[in-house]
Amino acid sequence: QPRMVLLDYQDPKWAERCALTTRTCLREFMAQNGRGNLQFRSDFFGYKNGRPLVDADRPYDVPEGAKALKPTLYAAWSGNQEAKQTVLRYGDTWLDAAMQEYEGKPRGLLPSRIGFKTGEPQGMALRMPPMRATHYHLLGCYLLSGDPKYLAPAEHTGRYFLVENGRGDLPLMQSGEIE
User: Fold this and answer.
1) What would the pLDDT profile of 62-117 be if each residue is shown by its tens digit?
2) Cα–Cα distance measured from residue 140 to residue 52, given in angstroms and rounded to the nearest whole number
3) Closest to 22 measured CA to CA, from 74, 63, 95
4) How many CB atoms lie within 10 A of CB 5?
5) Are 98 and 157 in contact (CB under 8 A)?
6) pLDDT tens, 2-61?
7) How far apart are CA 45 and CA 175, in angstroms?
8) What's 146's DSSP letter?
């Protein structure tokens, strides 16, 4: 994580390095899905032997994918308009998916993934650790735009787990548990 942009925020080189990460993500790992929304082309991407790698056998984005855009959020906060638009477009993708109701998934909860080819959400995220990155991202969208629509998934998630299902706590993973 590019913490220097937070620790030494007056030095523009850190924000520029975050913007470079943004441009790399947009060029190598992200594209418009079948619904025209911006998302990662796979939940497994990176570099191997100096070349970009996107796992075509896993053509979907997951809530944890938002972690890869933390540098973009920092660049946007520093005033970079391209980064701001990327943050908001990606946030809109997850907001749109969360607000869909289907196959037992209530409106407002994050899906477990979004298919790249169709842009359709699938499943329902049921554990907080995988959801945290996207909720953080959506909070960043709210802070950048002032639009409260980005807070809806967090509100719906809290209501679903704490009130409607009487669980009394958020769905945290137990130590050693794998989702």
Assistant:
1) 999 999 999 999 999 989 999 999 999 999 999 999 999 998 899 999 999 999 99
2) 27
3) 74
4) 24
5) no
6) 677 777 777 888 889 999 999 999 999 999 999 999 999 999 999 999 999 999 999 999
7) 26
8) -
Tokens of 137: 């991202």
pLDDT in tens, 102-161: 988 999 999 999 999 999 999 999 888 889 999 999 999 999 999 999 999 999 998 888
Task: Give dist(CA 176, CA 42) in Å, integer.
Answer: 25
The answer to whether the beta carbons of residues 3 and 31 sit under 8 Å apart is no
Distance CA 21, CA 118 (A): 26
Q: Look up tokens 């441009």; give the residue.
A: 23
Say how far apart CA 8 and CA 113 lie, in whole Å.
35
The single residue listed with the structure tokens 């009130």 is 163
Q: What residue type is assigned to position 161 of the chain? A: F
List Cβ neighbours of 77 (8 Å cut-off, separation of 6 or more): 140, 143, 144
> For tokens 């520093």, what's the residue?
78
* Amino acid making up residue 177: E
pTM: 0.89
